[in-house]
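Cast an eye over this sequence plus tokens and walk me through the fold:

***
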Amino acid sequence: MQNLVSLNLPAQDLADIDTAIATLRRVFAPFIALQPDDRVEMKKMGPKSREFCEQALSLLESNPQMVPPNLGLAEALADRTALEQLRPRLQQLHQLVERGDDTEMALGSDMMAIALEGYRLLEVSGKGEALKSARRDLSARFARKRRTVEAEPA
């Protein structure tokens, strides 16, 4: 018998999760959601570019006399601060979401393992008329859909 995880979520834990999510939604309200096209077109700062950005911003910051006012250095420095503050928190959120995803998968797998074993038992021992209809309904899960092959033009 498979039992990858046993989880009992008390009402207070669920309420705490809901409160935390509501808080995150409120805090994340000013965050943006990019469109796929925007993601493709924008400049991205990967690990190698990060060092370049840090060095360039530091040089510009320490030489303000050469920085034109319309460059937007103050905004870039504020972005750097926000990014430094946000990154470790996002990493923690990613870890939590990953654990949630893994737990969701394990719970579903546990259910599926028992359901399949129970279905096999019904096939073997559930010969009565009362179970015949239920078995037929359950067997729909395993019914293969026929593929229609389109005739190729000559």
Q: What stands out?
A: The chain has a mean pLDDT of 90.
